[in-house]
Amino acid sequence: MAERDDSGRKILGKSSSGNSPVVRSTNGVPARRVLGQSTTGAVASEQNSVAEGLGRGRTGGTFLVDSERRKRRPRIKTLVLIVIGLLVLVPVGSFAFGWLQFSKIPTVNVSAVLSPRGSRTGTNYLIVGTDSRAGIDANDPNSGAFLSGEVSGSRTDTIMVLHVAGPTTQLTSIPRDLWVTDPATGEKGRINSTFASGPSNLILAVEALGIPVDQYLEINFVSFGRLVDAVGGITIDFPYPAVDNQSGLSIANAGPNLLNGTEALAYVRSRYYTELVNGKPRVDGTADIGRTDRQRVFLTSLLREVAGERNPFRLFTLPGSLGAGMKRGSTFSYFDAIGLARVMKDASPETVVIPVTPRRTSGGADVLDLQSEARNVINGLAA
Q1: Geometric angle at alpha carbon 99, from 116 and 96, rounded to 5°
Q2: Which residues contact 174 (CB under 8 A, 6 or more apart)?
Q3: CB of 325 within 8 A of CB of 219?
């Protein structure tokens, strides 16, 4: 009688090794050898089950794992492409948007009067604040800072020179009452009146003092206020509470005060600046000199806020917030603006004061003359 295995199948014979009997399937499938069957039927059956299980793992489990891997590879590639796209497109898009906004700023062709570089290492930016009243709302509570008095022609209210030489930055104010010769007419007058003949004439007047001019920037009152509001205000440290009923300035507490656009302009344009020392008013008697000091504080704070802006979208929209109230010299490019912002981001410009002496002309005008010591300051700005 033929020998049978545990499952009832007939064992036809053993291999030459005597360890692997050949089994005939009951369903007509060709005979196969039972791998590793020992003389004990239970062990052989267990090993056979393990072998069959491994076979199923190779054919089923491996297929599922490979399938999952194939599915994950496209997902990973897609994520990588998305990340690379964001890293490239966001900076490029931001740069392009900033350039578009910057290109909207009107230009003034002053290239013919700008100073030659020569052996100078520093760069001078002439920053001019004009007294244009265009766009001032008469209902603004502080409109008196801008609309009071009559203004004939176009004059500059603020004239500053920002000197940049490597990591060194200096900021100096040129008093608007400085007595100079008008390049256009050859007549004596205040330096701010030279602007009536155009920006190029003002630049020539500044250069006649011995101060080279490499770049030109111009902004009116309205745009100054918009720029302050666009950066969320500027902080001015007041040693004492201060008021000016003419400009609308009203600072109730000493110390750092966050000013919005209108408040900042009321401060920078104050002609009757009055401090409250121990509750008693003390009027600033330095006239235009004190005013230029406040203008330096104002511009330094403003430049620091603009250059320190970390939000790229907010930074790139700043030029658009200025409207048509800002103008730039035709040689001042977008890359120049980016370079200046990088320099000013962590800079604290040194205040440089041009020594002047007040006097009254034969016609009764209160003006300022350069002192002999002014030459050293001017030579430093020409380096």
Answers
A1: 140
A2: 159, 160, 161, 191, 206, 209, 211, 292, 354
A3: yes
First-to-final CA distance of the chain: 118
Measured torsion, CA atoms of residues 60, 64, 66, 69, in degrees rounded to the nearest 10:
-170
User: What CA–CA distance (Å, rounded) separates 216 from 329?
Assistant: 5
Residue 351: count other Cβ atoms within 10 Å of its Cβ: 13
34 token code pair: 């039972």
Can you tell me the distance from the alpha carbon of 66 to that of 61, in angstroms, rounded to the nearest whole number? 9
Task: Kindly report the pTM of this predicted structure.
Answer: 0.68
373: left (phi over 0), alpha (psi -120 to 50) or beta: alpha
Residue whose structure tokens are 């800072």: 145
What CATH class has 107-381? alpha beta
Structure tokens at 297: 């504080």
Contact at 8 Å (CB) between 286 and 313?
no
The C-alpha atoms of residue 15 and residue 25 are separated, in whole angstroms, by 17
- Sequential pLDDT tens for the chain (383 residues): 555 555 555 554 554 444 545 444 445 545 444 444 444 444 445 445 544 544 444 445 555 555 665 655 667 767 766 766 656 555 666 667 667 778 888 899 999 999 999 899 999 999 998 866 555 556 654 455 555 554 445 567 789 999 999 888 999 999 989 999 999 999 999 999 999 999 999 999 999 999 999 999 998 877 778 888 888 899 999 999 999 988 889 999 999 999 998 899 889 888 889 999 988 999 988 777 788 888 888 888 887 777 776 666 566 666 666 655 788 999 999 889 888 878 877 777 888 999 999 999 998 989 999 999 999 999 999 99
**CA geometry: angle at 33 spanning 28 and 38, to 5°?**
130
Q: In the numeric block, which tokens belong to residue 319? A: 């030029």
